[in-house]
């Protein structure tokens, strides 16, 4: 078994358009069910995290800008790590991701480690 | 209780306490002597009580005999003078007498200290659980081998190695520092839970034995709650799980020893006292940081929802989300199966079948029972096929009888 990072991208949601707590609760169920499904197959290596909407980008000249996603259609919204035999199986697992139902996409990348 | 039941019962309840108290008196490095003394004492009890009838106070008899035997052996082997005496406080050493404190408090303390000695970091987790079952619960190598699906020789060697480690590392019979307690408590709790489950789900038909095991696990867990430094939220959560599960003890098997599934149980037979206790410990366990919620907290919450038999969507949705979280903390096949059952109740059978097929637990008879249940009234031929597989894989007569009954029912429908 190898580990693969699943990166979720979707349209950037700015602060004003953030959903209410009740809406979040409702939105969480498909995510929780999907992660529960991966975990039940013993294929979830890490539950990862959701990312906050605001951020900074530090460029090579050490200039710090807001962003990066103000203009970007596909902002990173979160990630998890799954266990799979190969890239194809990891991509198969990604097909269940709820981000696909709201027009987002999932990037699947193998983890190679630092050594 | 008859003699032939009383001695095995006392063996299970007193063996570990006696070993702990003796080790406390003459050092854990002499644990094999302590075990020999206690085993000898029980052998003598079998012989004497059979011939002369029961003593007035059988427990006191055991402790007195064990105490005298230890003195004899230690003297004979010169261990007392050379090793034990120099380590004793001067006053006691001057008395030239091995003092074995048989007070209730010392028995409880010694056993608590023994729990932590066994969970010493120098010993591998597997060996720790084996040692706990052996020393704290008086299990033989054979019973432990059964629990671990291993063979007796392997377990015997593992236990011997673990006991050598205790000696080599000079593990002291004392309560470790608070940080150490926190580190070792995980293993302690895992061991307690394994012990409880061994009783609750055991393949053994011996109901007395199984109840004793559960009660032992609860007693040991309670001793952790009683002690301030080990009374953590997770310990309370584990105690809560045990109480909720134990509340159904009378309802989960009929008079012929056959399994009664949760949904078919007579809730009148559930122990309201244990359910109340479960709720009490669940409440106690909630006094903790959100990020310290353990798998025991989640399992206790699931067990709590099961104290209400009503089949509501809200209940199953809550249970499903708890299983989703539990599995993210720690995978186990049984949690995966239970999650899929909850999924069928919350999201419908069709989705649950797709999810169940992904689990690939083909060697697990509960897996086939789950699929049989999900396919019922959707594809009864598949139900029958899965019941047959479950029958091949089942381990006990109670399970076989139960599955055969289900198979007859489905064959009637299919005919």
UniProtKB/TrEMBL annotation, chain A:
- Superkingdom of the organism of origin: Bacteria
The YCII-related domain is annotated at 20-108
Database matches in Pfam families: YCII
- Record-linked InterPro entries: Dimeric_a/b-barrel, YCII
PANTHER family noted in UniProt = BLL0086 PROTEIN, BLL7171 PROTEIN-RELATED
Q: Which family does it belong to?
A: Belongs to the YciI family.
Question: What is the protein named?
Answer: YciI family protein
> Source species, please?
Pinibacter soli
From TrEMBL, chain B:
Q: List the transmembrane segments.
A: none
Please report the stretch or stretches of sequence annotated as the RNA polymerase sigma-70 region domain.
15-78
Residue span(s) of domain DUF6596: 184-285
Q: One matching Pfam family, short form?
A: Sigma70_r2
Full protein name: Sigma factor
Source species: Pinibacter soli
Q: What is the lineage of its organism?
A: Bacteria, Pseudomonadati, Bacteroidota, Chitinophagia, Chitinophagales
């Amino acid at each position: 078994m190898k580990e693969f990072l699943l990166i979720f991208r979707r349209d950037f949601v700015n602060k004003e358009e953030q959903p209410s707590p009740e809406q979040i609760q409702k939105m969480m169920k498909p995510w929780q069910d999907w992660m529960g499904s991966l975990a039940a197959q013993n294929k979830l290596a890490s539950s990862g995290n959701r990312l906050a909407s605001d951020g900074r980008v530090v460029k090579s000249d050490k200039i710090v800008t807001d962003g990066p996603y103000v203009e970007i259609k596909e902002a990173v919204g979160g990630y998890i790590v799954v266990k799979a035999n190969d890239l194809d199986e990891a991509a198969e697992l990604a097909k269940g991701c709820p981000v696909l139902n709201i027009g987002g996409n999932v990037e699947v990348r193998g983890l190679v480690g630092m050594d | 209780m008859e003699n032939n039941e009383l001695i095995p019962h006392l063996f299970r309840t007193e063996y570990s306490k006696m070993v702990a108290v003796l080790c406390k008196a003459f050092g854990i490095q002499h644990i094999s002597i302590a075990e020999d003394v206690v085993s000898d004492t029980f052998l003598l009890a079998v012989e004497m009580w059979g011939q002369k009838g029961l003593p007035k106070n059988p427990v006191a008899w055991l402790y007195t005999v064990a105490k005298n035997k230890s003195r004899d052996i230690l003297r004979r082997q010169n261990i007392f003078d050379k090793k034990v005496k120099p380590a004793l406080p001067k006053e006691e050493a001057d008395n030239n007498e091995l003092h074995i404190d048989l007070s209730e408090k010392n028995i409880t303390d010694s056993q608590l200290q023994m729990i932590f000695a066994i969970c010493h970091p120098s010993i591998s987790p597997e060996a720790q659980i084996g040692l706990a079952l052996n020393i704290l619960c008086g299990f033989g190598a054979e019973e432990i081998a059964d629990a671990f699906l291993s063979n007796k020789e392997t377990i015997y060697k593992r236990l011997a190695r673990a006991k050598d480690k205790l000696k080599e590392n000079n593990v002291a019979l004392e309560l470790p520092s608070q940080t150490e307690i926190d580190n070792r408590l995980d293993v302690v709790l895992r061991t307690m839970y394994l012990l409880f489950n061994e009783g609750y789900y055991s393949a053994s038909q011996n109901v007395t034995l199984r109840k004793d095991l559960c009660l032992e696990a609860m007693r040991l867990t309670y001793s952790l709650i009683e002690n301030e430094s080990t009374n953590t939220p997770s310990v309370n959560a584990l105690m809560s799980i045990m109480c909720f599960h134990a509340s159904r003890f009378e309802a989960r098997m009929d008079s012929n020893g056959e399994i009664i599934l949760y949904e078919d149980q007579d809730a009148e037979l559930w122990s309201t006292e244990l359910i109340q206790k479960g709720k009490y410990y669940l409440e106690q366990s909630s006094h903790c940081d959100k990020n310290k919620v353990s798998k025991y907290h989640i399992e206790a919450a699931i067990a709590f929802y099961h104290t209400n038999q009503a089949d509501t969507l809200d209940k199953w949705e809550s249970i499903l989300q708890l299983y989703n979280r539990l599995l993210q903390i720690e995978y186990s096949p049984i949690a995966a199966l239970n999650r899929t059952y909850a999924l069928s109740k919350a999201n419908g059978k069709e989705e649950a079948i797709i999810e169940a097929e992904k689990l690939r637990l083909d060697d697990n008879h509960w897996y086939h029972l789950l699929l049989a249940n999900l396919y019922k009234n959707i594809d009864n031929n598949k139900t029958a096929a899965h019941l047959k597989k479950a029958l091949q894989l089942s381990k006990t007569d109670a399970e076989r009888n139960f599955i055969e009954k289900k198979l007859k029912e489905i064959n009637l429908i299919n005919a």
